[in-house]
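Readers of this paper often ask what the protein records in our data store actually look like. Nothing more is needed to write down the fold, since each code stands for a local backbone conformation. Below, we set out a record of this kind in full and without editing:
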Amino acid sequence: MTPGKRHGRLLLGLGLVLVLTGCNEQQDALAPRSHAASDIASLFWWMMGIAWGGLALVVLLMVFAWRKAHRRPGHGVKEREQLGFRVVIGAGIVFPIVLIAALFVIGDIFVIQTTQAPAKSATRMTIVVTGHQWWWEVRYPGTTAVTANEIHIPVRTPVRLEVKTADVIHSFWVPRLNRTIDAMPGRRNAIELYADAAGRYRGQCDEFCGLQHAHMAFYVYADPPAKFRRWLADQEKPARAPTGGLAARGRQAFLASCASCHSIRGTSASGYVGPDLTHLQTRSTIAALTVPNTRAGLAHWIVDSQSVKPGNQMPNMHLPAGRLNALVAYLEGLK
């Protein structure tokens, strides 16, 4: 097989992968699950329809001009020039300006009303999300609940989401729930977070923020109200005391090696470089959806995080096997 054919097949394979990835509903902005996302999707389909209509009009005009020129060559040149001038002015200048102005009015006056954040007085819940390189810190003001990379909200309830950053510019986006919003240094931006149906919705940092930008994802869980209240009450509790000698030794290992970067409420660990681990085992992943939250995943992340997510602030921990097993046993008890 020649190099050209190999490159062609490789490009075809990559194209198929992109197409199949686009068919996944996890981050599909055209499979909305909120009124805000529905308005955005509707605007997209209107714009797409108008674009295809415009293309069809251009093709028809080209065919019409070609047929007329071949039918009567050299006849009525001046008349055709005048007609062409009118078509260019009307269809090429006036119509696009009117159309763009209409879309601007619809998007920036009407659609924005459903996508912007509700006033603090209009909702009973505010969540503050802070972007870090490369993970998300989630806090629930008025409570002691702190989590990371997984946001829980009550279903069919408007939530005011305030976004800020601890370092560079990030962008918070849950395609099926609302538009993107930037996390800017020195300011706090807000948006509405609302879900029509219970479920899990994947989000992503939408602004290039460094080496691991692609591995800065998160989940939004829309829970039934009763389930959400139970979850929030559990998140407010301090960490459970370790049960068993192995987990107790793991806590000592954690306080000696990890407490300067991580917090666990109910212990002396109060670091803020990495995520709060008080209820680590309530999360399905670690490292912003990069690693499954399993015993093997935890162990691999602790000893060799730089091979999983190069450049992140978690150093490789060179621990003896016994100390590592104890540390993992302790972390597995943080429920």
Notes: The chain has a mean pLDDT of 87.
